Amino acid sequence: MSDSDEPVRAEEKTTGRVEAFSDGVFAIAITLLILDLRAPIAPPGTVPGAAQQILLHQLAAMWPNVVAYLMSFAVILVMWVNHHRIFTVVRRTDHAFLFWNGLLLMLVCIVPFPTELLAKYFLTPAAKVAAAVYAGHGLLIAIAFTIVWRYATRSDRLLVPGRKAEVTKLTEQYRFGPLMYLVAFALAFVSAWASIGLCLLFAIFFSLQGFTQRGQG
Amino acid sequence: MSDSDEPVRAEEKTTGRVEAFSDGVFAIAITLLILDLRAPIAPPGTVPGAAQQILLHQLAAMWPNVVAYLMSFAVILVMWVNHHRIFTVVRRTDHAFLFWNGLLLMLVCIVPFPTELLAKYFLTPAAKVAAAVYAGHGLLIAIAFTIVWRYATRSDRLLVPGRKAEVTKLTEQYRFGPLMYLVAFALAFVSAWASIGLCLLFAIFFSLQGFTQRGQG
Amino acid sequence: MSDSDEPVRAEEKTTGRVEAFSDGVFAIAITLLILDLRAPIAPPGTVPGAAQQILLHQLAAMWPNVVAYLMSFAVILVMWVNHHRIFTVVRRTDHAFLFWNGLLLMLVCIVPFPTELLAKYFLTPAAKVAAAVYAGHGLLIAIAFTIVWRYATRSDRLLVPGRKAEVTKLTEQYRFGPLMYLVAFALAFVSAWASIGLCLLFAIFFSLQGFTQRGQG
Amino acid sequence: MSDSDEPVRAEEKTTGRVEAFSDGVFAIAITLLILDLRAPIAPPGTVPGAAQQILLHQLAAMWPNVVAYLMSFAVILVMWVNHHRIFTVVRRTDHAFLFWNGLLLMLVCIVPFPTELLAKYFLTPAAKVAAAVYAGHGLLIAIAFTIVWRYATRSDRLLVPGRKAEVTKLTEQYRFGPLMYLVAFALAFVSAWASIGLCLLFAIFFSLQGFTQRGQG
Partner of B133 at 20 to 30 A CA spacing, among A3, A166, C24, C45? Predict the structure, then answer.
């Protein structure tokens, strides 16, 4: 976006706005499935005991929506934390970076869809299709994260100086991401349980990365 | 997220982004129930007097949606103000803090659901179920606020220096939160009115805390 | 929120977050009615001429939704610009200010509802009801703006120093707001056209205020 | 918004808030069509093979929604990047600028609507109507971008000093925007394919502008 002889102020402003826009998109993506948690419309009834039973059953029947919301929120939170970590070492952006970041955001916003699909079909005979869509989407996200990170670290131009150790660690972390999700995607054709179990393990793996970092701080 | 020998600039940037992301999520949560305030579709009619009566009745029938919106907005506003107060004394975050804050946001976004449930069922024989869900969710939020606050204040590492008095006051405020909502939850099995009355008292209590603070400024 | 001996940095941070949260809420409110602009589902047909006619008619029938979106966007934009102007002279907030600002935001988010009501009923025999709801809501917004402004200017504690001229001008502008909308509300019981015409005049009046200011810059 | 003898701090704050508000609106607009990607409700079935086939067919039938989301996201991303570029050379705003920027945002939020229309009608006999609406809306956006840019560059008052080269380049870029989309709009009455093909070429053209800039950095 800017010549290398730009003053420091302009650089910070640029990064700030990419992050603000990304935060807005993440905030919308992470809350999307809450739109499905609506108060059920129960026949009012006149006997308290029976009316309570009906409402409880209707609330219990909402479990796929609740699971989808919690899982989608947790997974997108892990992605946001990782996006946040990337930007702690990125001090400026350029034109192409804005588009690679945009590609990542485009995929992040889709997360609620395969998650809802999974919640609704995981216990049905069509579970493998839902698992393949879920793991396949995870693969696309892993590739997008890798591209954003590789582009940011191609040279020192976009990076905060003096953070080599953290950059190396993140590079290692992202190295195997696409391969991991490729395995989960292939597994979906064999077993939905194995594929999704692996995806959840990966999410835990990526959420734990920041802790090892802090331990060395 | 950051070594303790980080320069000041990087720390502020980190906190800023957590707050911006949280603000985005709060803004979505607080406006969620406005989606239910839609213009009713009245049969047009030809006589002005009758057409006006029909529209007025349809508007009046929307009261549970209006009450749910106002109550949800007010309660989430109190939560946002408290979140805001916490961050006035937090100067930096670490990896775990991002997740505890995320857990809190996940629960905040759910607020419109039990509120809508309450507005629709409080005057029905199933009121106790709605009250138990509402107070139970309040309990989870109180626990999450307590965790976020306890984690931030475990050591001085994440805190703005020289704000001891305010930190102590907030610690006292959050100490009894979970217990208070546990009582309200238990009461729901006895009386929906008592349980929800207590929840509203707590919301007023938490919204008043900031005033006592200002009085000492 | 903060003792008067707080360093400057903390004050700015506080104002920044209130504005960021307000901006998020304004952004949601201003885009709300775009959710009603959906592609119509036309019978595909096989003859191009007929299929095009059908689609054109369906698009034309969406005019109340288009008018409601444009009007709601324009009116909330004027409110955002005024909110923005207030915060150019407010340098810090306190606990009560957060709640008065929250009350204003709560009312701003409702704007799409009376606007949609107006677009759908203004040309029907129930026009007066829609106009009364619209002007009545405008009255509430005018009162909330007045309260926020009065509270901010009660003393110099919350204000940016050295902006007396601008503060005085804004005080004059807000002085007659509630009275103006009270007249529009009363007029709704006589004539929907007169009431809404007056409301639009007021919106233009409030959007022009900033220009007179600039002329003196 | 501010006298020319304002201190630097106040100016930056003003620009920051316009950008934050714009980012919020862009974030909502860019994610709007994701609301249409919902898990299909398939008859569960009992035979895995058949259940999987049904779900796959239902997912495949969602292609117009997927195309509309991807296309709308990509086009609004290009607009955001251009909005971002404009603000890298704008250091302050005034009252009229806020409204011109608001007009642009109002049109950006509409983008999902003609895009969805196009995805649903491009392969039907009513394609020309959808293409005309799409290109016509593109024309309005191009005009709004031109107005915002012309207004910002009328004098040096709103611009960051010392960025003449970039300002000249952006002026050249925006010069032919409205004319280009006018051609695409006229073409829609002849051929939907030619019109939309041209619109996509323009989007690519505007997304490539930033690269030529970087090449000279």
Answer: C24
> B106 to chain A, minimum CA–CA distance in Å?
7
Helices (H) and strands (E) counted in chain A, each on its own, are 9, 0
Question: In terms of CA atoms, which chain A residue is nearest residue D82?
Answer: A95
Residue B24, chain D, CB below 8 Å: the answer is yes
The DSSP code sequence of D174-188 is HHTHHHHHHHHHHHT
Tokens 């910070």 locate to: A12
Question: Per residue in C12-23, is it b (16+ CB within 10 Å) or e — as a string?
Answer: ebbbbbbbbbbb
pLDDT exceeds 50 at position D171: yes
Contact D175, D149 (CB under 8 A): no
Of the pLDDT bands very low, low, confident and very high (cuts 50, 70, 90), residue D42 is: low
Which residue of A lies nearest to D90 if distances are taken between CA atoms?
A10
Q: What whole-number distance in Å separates Cα of residue C99 and Cα of residue B204?
A: 12
The pair of three-digit structure tokens given for residue C177, joined into one six-digit string: 């707001």
Which C-chain residues 37-96 have CB contacts (< 8 A) with chain D?
37-39, 41-42, 44-48, 50-52, 54-56, 59, 69-70, 73-74, 77, 80-81, 84-85, 87-88
Report the length, in residues, of chain A.
217
Nearest to C117 among B39, B50, B77 (CB): B39
Average pLDDT over residues C179-205: 92
The structure's pTM equals 0.90
Task: Quote ipTM for the complex.
Answer: 0.87
pLDDT(A78) > 90: yes
Q: Which chain A residues are within 8 Å of B94, Cβ to Cβ?
A: 210, 214
Distance from CA of C78 to the nearest CA of B (A): 20
DSSP summary character for residue D141: H
Q: Tens digit of pLDDT for each residue in C46-83?
A: 777 888 888 999 999 999 999 999 999 999 999 999 99
Q: How far apart are CA C34 and CA B171, in angstroms?
A: 44
**Which of D21, D96, D99 is nearest residue C26 as measured by Cβ atoms?**
D21
Sign of CA dihedral A50, A55, A56, A60: positive
CA distance B138 to B149: 16
Task: Name the minimum distance, in Å, from the CA of B191 to any CA of chain C.
Answer: 30
- What are A23-60's pLDDT values in tens digits? 999 999 999 999 989 988 866 667 778 888 899 999 99
- Which among B39, B80, B216 has CB closest to C113? B39
B145: pLDDT strictly greater than 80: yes
Which residue stretches of B154-176 are H helix? Answer: 164-175
Q: CB contact, 8 Å: D203 with chain C?
A: no
* Strand stretches in chain C, DSSP E: none
Calpha distance D19→C82 (Å, rounded): 16
Residues of B in Cβ contact (< 8 Å) with C96 = 211, 214
- pLDDT confidence of residue C48: 75
pLDDT at C141 over 90: yes
Q: Which two tokens stand for residue C65?
A: 């939704």
Query: What is the secondary structure of C103-139 as a DSSP string?
Result: HHHHHHTTTHHHHHHHHHHTTSTTHHHHHHHHHHHHH
Give pLDDT, residue A42: 67
What dihedral angle (degrees, nearest 10) is formed by the CA atoms of B181, B187, B192, B197? -50
Q: What percent of chain B has pLDDT over 70?
A: 89
Residue predicted with more confidence, D15 or C6: D15
Ranges A34-43, C99-108, D122-131, most confident: C99-108
- Interface check for B31 against chain C (CB to CB < 8 A): the answer is yes
